[in-house]
From TrEMBL, chain A:
GO terms for molecular function: ATP binding; ATP hydrolysis activity. Gene3D superfamilies: P-loop containing nucleotide triphosphate hydrolases. This is ATP-binding cassette domain-containing protein. It holds the Pfam family ABC_tran. It comes from Maritimibacter harenae. Keywords: ATP-binding, Nucleotide-binding, Repeat, Sugar transport, Transport. InterPro entries: AAA+_ATPase, ABC_carbohydrate_import_ATPase, ABC_transporter-like_ATP-bd, ABC_transporter-like_CS, P-loop_NTPase.
Automatic annotation (TrEMBL), chains B, D:
Keywords: Cell membrane, Membrane, Transmembrane, Transmembrane helix. Its main location: membrane. InterPro entries: ABC_transp_permease. It is a multi-pass membrane protein. This is ABC transporter permease. It holds the Pfam family BPD_transp_2. GO terms for cellular component: plasma membrane. It is found in: Cell membrane.
Length: 498, 312, 302, 312
């Protein structure tokens, strides 16, 4: 089977610097139509930046980009769009106040004379949804729908523009395991239809399964490009991290079954969201909270932290918890929220302030904040977490997505909590860093801390948890442990309520 | 019942305004009369014209303080040309043109110099107010032609021409905002500028146009004002922009941009007009009036804020 | 009550106008007139609306207005007169000629005010006498807000009255604003930086109060002649103590009384009294100095 | 060189202000003199006191328009009590207390009723202005005691007590904002309220406190103003809030919240003060003054905006 290969895009000697930061340097690359081309690399390797150069979000600081053999300079994404180059960005770029329809149709409304033809626009969007079999409620406000649906809106927006090239920047970071396969099928379908696809992901299995070509980036430099068929999981890990990594998951020590639970939840309910949830976590135990998207896992976690009102009993360290979030944090809870941009970070504030936000009391004295000690402890914590930064005074926004996630981990770890609630803690984190976060979780557990782990990655739940509580439609549908803890048992329980 | 509640939630400010209207109509002699209603429409015409386009500029993510100065300065330019040429049309053209230029200056300051719109238009306010003093040579200006007073005061089917112009502008602005691609782009620019840019919207141009339209509308309002008063004079008066901003914000258009509607602003203009008309008809003591007005506005916006909240 | 009168105040907050209102109320009570006050809040558009509301309500027999936009209010006042409402103009010109107290709209029953231009000529008159024998006589002129037609008219009157005194030169100008002494304080401090000495400071009473405060701080009180316009209580105190040279009398109480008397007259007899300058009948044309201060008394607090 | 550029970028507004200072000192007779500098400090003391805490409220994500009304109304309350009791201390206490209560009302409207701070404080402005009229019975109030005038005017080492109080307040506010847990929480609340709440910050309380501190500072400024003027009078005057907001925004504190600094505001206060002082010393015609001021502010904020951009 030999198909003629068309080169769509050629990059020669492309580089990009932000102020003093060199994001990319000397990249030579060609992108072909009808192929899925993967970019892999550590957090901050320059994958997103490379994608953004291609779709005109940034202009390259050096080098040339040629489309169909002719050099192009894009002054804005609008110009790249005109050439059929479309991107789906890593951080959702939607208008939360507007409807799904408005978000998808933006810039592609069907016109009748000077006016937008609302009915025809709707029909056009509906046609795209039907063609790719991806349905979203068109009249919902984007801010009101779950992240998964928002991700679909982003993808539909790209699909609705007759693109020649689509950049998918970590599309599955926000998707649960069961939604990945359809997306990969979609990606293949697009390539089959003659489009060029660039696919960025930290999930190496996806890369191996669905892509034709792999480009490995490290520290802004091009390491190698080759056919996916000649790569294996091990070669990719080696290429990405520059070293050989052992097992993906660390050794998990068994907790002391005799100890009294750190956290006891009894009959926790929040009408319409979850009902009658009861479970315990003992010191040193990692308990997974599994379920389908929208099953209420995050809501249960928020209620435990005190962020949402709920009825029922929560006992912590054998005593009552305070009502406020501050009281519960002070008592030794910590949480990594699921949406780092909206619920976790102050994106324009310095890294140091982001890390210590929950712990200022401990740096406060009669003379105010002890900023020297604060910096020392943050530096130490960042090292322990493997966070890569230039200066602690840089805003969180200057970090790559994965490193932003590590800020939240550093914040939680700084408090030395008795209970860590980690909601999707490795979202968008590279393979090497993932392992270091797993190590941190395992290390905390080994030191007798209790962990409540929420993840939409089944493997992660299976690889780390001692015990898994499965929620389905807001109710506990099962508790799995030891030999019973298998992927199929988990999925059966998760679907039981539907 | 379910539907009634949903309606009340979406249209909080409208419900409050209708309520106020009904209460006044039932309790206040002279309120619900032809003439009083016509007067209110005529009185609010200038604010309505500017407030519609202020709504648009705020939805696009920008403030414009200079509207007060444009309102004061442009009719002076218009009268200068009218006095010199004796032509009403040229006078109007000059006034509107001056408004458009002022709007373009604001737009350049915000999109090119990347200055925050609040402070940029505050600075240009000084410039425009100063222009008004220069143009008028510090004195009251009066039209040469008799026709100038007819611009705002001609009666057509019982309503003044100013009222009709305001109605036309409200409809035009609403159509522009809700039915055209430009309107979509206005919302997109204010909701998430970066996202809009990624989707191919020329966000700078969108903002520029909203500034020019707004200043043009303020110039129109100013010219109509000079027709009602058969004169214009320079001042540093911020009361016009104050009335315009109050209406837009009481209406519930978000100052964060990306959300809001012209019907909201129009409703709020009438809410505030009914309130002070009611005070006048009821002969409320001016001192207590301030206190009551403050509390009533606070209650109205609380209800609207509550109704706009998702999980109220 | 026999009559209903609407009083359209430029601002209910204004200390001058509230003094006028007190006197109006006394006259009104004695003559069976009920007054309703409308607060213009220094917003011309708001006053226009009030004017239309007053006419539309059909309830009022008369209206007294302190206009915020003199020329702008004319069409609505014409309409009020057409509707048979008696109109008395108070304190502020209704029309565009700032040099006369005479009514500028046909059918206005009375116009009680000092024309801004004549405030200026009186101010100039006191300045001429203050400068007698001083050559050159260096004057600092404080505007309220420079550039407004009102301030321009006052200044024109001042220039007219001092035109024949070549010894008088205005060496510096400043803006005092009209609200309290703060503006006068800053303006005087700044002017002192450039002009170490001058002979006279003229301006609104409120600004001159600020000047007095600064000069006292600088130990210059007595070296400079202070001349205000307004006839406020602090100005009288200043003249009596010698800190001030003079002030142009201000008569909010008389204005209020005269306006309501003219209104009652118009309502009962249909008489029109025309323009009334409340200072015209006063000693020395209302120019208050140490020589005649005992013949006056302050009508408002400032 | 590299470092100089970096410095200029971080401290854009400061560099511009120093430049203006040097130009004025070299060209303007009477500018760089002891007395002129002392005068400027004294004249700006009230604005400085309120602007520091306005900066804090804006960083926490809120506007406060009612500061103008608090500035007008609280000295009237203070003088009422002073007149009644003859006690300066009780008068001051009453004025500050009234300020705190007004701030708390704003805080409740924003955190409990969830009304946008802009419109909430606009509504409370009416209420507070009205209170001023009620308290003073519409007339000028003067202190009974001679000591009242010494509050602001006592000279200590050549500077007035108002100046010293302003210096103390600036230092206090800066320390509070940059060196304490509360200050960090202020930034966090403005930068991302939901994230701050999940991190255990009592965001409602933080906002409440910033409102109370700001209104208290405005009351202090108002009381000092009444001491300088040896009187106080009711009005609807928005010029104080106007000066305060202009300073904060020219300084470059973001109205979106979460970013800004008190040194920026203080610098901007002096930038604007130097500018108008320079105009006065040069006896520039006020008409041209408006035009020039507008342009100079626009240039200054453009330079600052350019310098604050990350990848300039
Ligand atoms: N707007 C920006 N300003 C400054 N630095 C930036 C900006 N965008 C990216 N960088 C820097 O450029 C480098 C590459 O970032 P990029 O986002 O491309 O990484 P990435 O490979 O996509 O990482 P991740 O897997 O975490 O998404 C990083 O060092 C990042 O800090
Ligand atoms: N902002 C919201 N308003 C109303 N209901 C919501 C909101 N957010 C979530 N829900 C509802 O709460 C339930 C759980 O939501 P959510 O999707 O967060 O669950 P989850 O198990 O945490 O899933 P995931 O972690 O994958 O997002 C769903 O029924 C959802 O519809
Ligand atoms: Mg990335
Ligand atoms: Mg979740």
């Amino acid at each position: 089977m030999t198909t003629r290969v068309d080169t769509l895009l050629t990059l020669s000697g492309v580089g990009k610097t932000f102020g003093g930061t060199v994001a990319l340097e000397g990249i030579d690359l060609s992108i072909e139509t009808g192929k899925v081309h993967a970019f892999v690399g550590e957090n901050g390797a320059g994958k997103s930046t490379l994608g953004k150069l291609i779709v005109g979000v940034h202009a390259p600081s050096a080098g040339r980009i040629a489309l169909d053999g002719a050099e192009v300079h894009f002054a804005s994404p609008a110009q790249a769009l005109d050439h059929g180059l479309v991107g789906i960005s890593q951080e959702l770029s939607l208008m939360p106040q507007r409807t799904v329809l408005d978000n998808i149709a933006l810039g592609r409304e069907v016109m009748r004379g000077p006016f937008v033809d609302a009915r025809a626009t709707r029909a056009a969007v509906q046609a795209v949804m039907d063609r790719y079999d991806m349905q979203v409620d068109l009249d919902a406000r984007v801010g009101d729908i779950p992240v998964v649906e928002q991700q679909k809106v982003e993808i539909l927006r790209a699909l609705s523009r007759d693109a020649r090239l689509i950049v998918f920047d970590e599309p599955t970071a926000r998707l649960p395991s069961d939604q990945v396969a359809p997306l990969l099928a979609l990606v293949r379908q697009l390539a089959g239809a003659g489009k060029a696809v660039i696919y960025v992901s930290h999930f190496l299995e996806e890369i191996l399964e669905a892509t034709d070509t792999v480009t490995i980036l490290r520290n802004g430099r091009h390491i190698r490009t080759g056919p996916t068929a000649s790569e294996t999981h091990e070669t990719l890990v080696e290429g990405v991290t520059g070293s050989v990594l052992g097992e993906q998951y660390p050794e998990i020590t068994a907790p002391d079954a005799a100890q009294a639970p750190v956290l006891s939840v009894r009959g926790l309910s929040r009408p319409g969201v979850f009902e009658n949830v009861s479970f315990d976590i003992r010191p040193g135990e990692i308990v997974g909270l599994a379920g389908l998207v929208g099953s209420g896992r995050s809501e249960i976690a928020r209620a435990i932290l005190g962020a949402d009102p709920a009825t029922g009993e929560i006992r912590f360290n054998g005593g009552d918890t305070g009502r406020s979030i501050a009281a519960r944090l002070a008592a030794g809870m910590a949480m990594i929220p699921e949406n780092r941009r909206e619920q976790g970070l102050m994106i324009d504030r310095p890294i140091v302030e982001n890390v210590t936000l929950s712990h200022l009391r401990r740096f406060s004295g009669a003379l105010g904040l002890d900023r020297r000690r604060e910096r020392a402890e943050v530096t130490q914590q960042c090292t322990a977490t493997g966070l890569k930064y230039n200066s602690l005074d840089d805003p969180a926004a200057a970090l790559s997505g994965g490193n932003q996630q590590k800020i939240l981990f550093a914040r939680a770890a700084l408090g030395d909590p008795a209970l860590l609630i980690a909601d999707e803690p490795t979202r968008g984190v590279d393979v090497g860093a993932k392992r270091s976060i797993y190590d941190l979780i395992a290390g905390l557990a080994a030191r007798g801390k209790a962990i409540l782990l929420i993840s939409s990655e089944l493997e992660e739940i299976l690889g780390l948890s001692h015990r898994v509580i499965v929620v389905s439609r807001g109710r506990v549908a099962g508790e799995l442990e030891g030999a019973d803890l298998t992927e199929s048992a988990l999925m059966t329980a998760a679907f039981s309520g539907t | 019942m379910q539907r009634t509640i949903l309606f009340a939630k979406t249209y909080g400010i409208l419900v409050v305004t209708v309520l106020l209207f009904v209460v006044l109509a039932l309790t206040t002699e002279g309120f619900f009369t032809d003439r009083n209603m016509r007067n209110i429409l005529d009185q609010q015409s200038g604010v309505l014209i500017a407030a519609c386009f202020m709504t648009m500029a705020i939805i696009a993510g920008n403030f414009d303080i200079s509207v007060g100065a444009v309102y004061v300065a442009t009719p002076l330019v218009a009268l200068l040309v009218e006095n010199a040429t004796g032509s009403i049309a040229l006078g109007i053209l000059a006034g509107l043109g001056a408004g458009a230029v002022m709007g373009a200056i604001n737009g350049i300051a915000v999109t090119r110099l990347k200055v925050n719109s609040f402070i940029a238009t505050l600075a240009t306010s000084f410039v425009f107010f100063g222009t008004g003093y220069l143009v008028s040579d510090r004195s009251i200006m009066r039209p040469e032609t008799d026709g100038w007073r007819d611009l705002a005061r001609t009666r057509i089917f019982e309503l003044t021409s100013a009222t009709w112009i305001a109605i036309a502008v409200v409809i035009l602005a609403s159509v522009l905002l809700t039915r055209t691609r430009f309107g979509r782009n206005v919302y997109a620019t204010g909701a998430n500028r970066e996202a809009a840019r990624l989707a191919g919207v020329a966000t700078d141009r969108v903002q520029m146009i909203t500034f020019v339209l707004l200043a043009g509308a303020a110039a129109l309002a100013g010219i109509l004002g000079s027709s009602r008063a058969i004169s214009a004079q320079p001042s540093d008066d911020f009361s016009f922009i104050f009335a315009v901003l109050t209406a837009v914000i009481v209406g519930g258009t978000s100052i964060a941009g990306g959300a809001g509607a012209i019907w909201r602003t129009v409703t709020a203009v009438f809410f505030l007009a009914f309130l002070s008309n009611g005070f006048n008809l009821h002969q409320i003591d001016p001192i207590w009036q301030r206190l009551i007005e403050g509390f009533v506005i606070l209650i109205a916006v609380s209800i609207d804020a509550w109704s706009q909240r998702r999980s109220g | 009550q026999d009559y209903e009168v609407a009083y359209l105040s430029a601002s209910s907050a204004n200390t001058w106008l509230s003094r006028s209102l007190e006197e109006m109320e006394k006259v009104a009570a004695a003559n069976g007139v009920a007054i309703t006050e409308f607060d213009g809040q220094f917003d011309a558009a708001a006053q226009t609306a009030q004017l239309q509301d007053v006419i539309a309500s059909g309830r009022y027999d008369g209206l007294i207005i302190a206009a915020l936009n003199g020329p702008g209010a004319v069409p609505d006042i014409e309409m009020a007169i057409e509707e048979g409402i008696e109109v008395v103009v108070l304190n502020q010109v209704l029309g565009s000629d700032l040099t006369t107290s005479a009514p500028q709209v046909d059918g206005v029953a009375a116009s009680v005010m000092v024309a801004p231009y004549h405030s200026g000529t009186r101010l100039g008159g006191i300045t001429v006498s203050a400068c007698e024998g001083i050559d050159p006589c260096e004057v600092v002129y404080l505007y309220g807000i420079k550039g407004t037609p009102l301030d321009t008219a006052i200044r024109n009157g001042f220039d007219e009255a001092t035109a024949d005194s070549p010894n008088i030169t205005v060496v510096a100008e400043g803006e005092g604003k009209y609200l309290g002494p703060d503006g006068g304080i800053a303006a005087t401090q700044d002017i002192l930086q450039v002009n170490a000495s001058f002979d006279v400071v003229v301006g609104p009473d409120q600004a001159i109060q600020g000047t007095e405060i600064v000069l006292e701080d600088e130990g210059m009180l007595g070296d400079v002649k202070l001349i205000g316009f307004g006839g406020s209580a602090p100005a009288f105190e200043g003249i009596r103590s010698g800190a001030w040279y003079g002030t142009v009398m201000g008569a909010p109480a008389d204005e209020g009384r005269l306006a309501m008397e003219a209104m009652v007259d118009a309502l009962k007899t249909g008489n029109d009294q025309g323009g009334i300058d409340p200072l015209a009948a006063m000693p020395d044309d209302g120019k208050v100095t140490a020589d005649n201060v005992d013949q006056f008394s302050a009508q408002w607090d400032g």
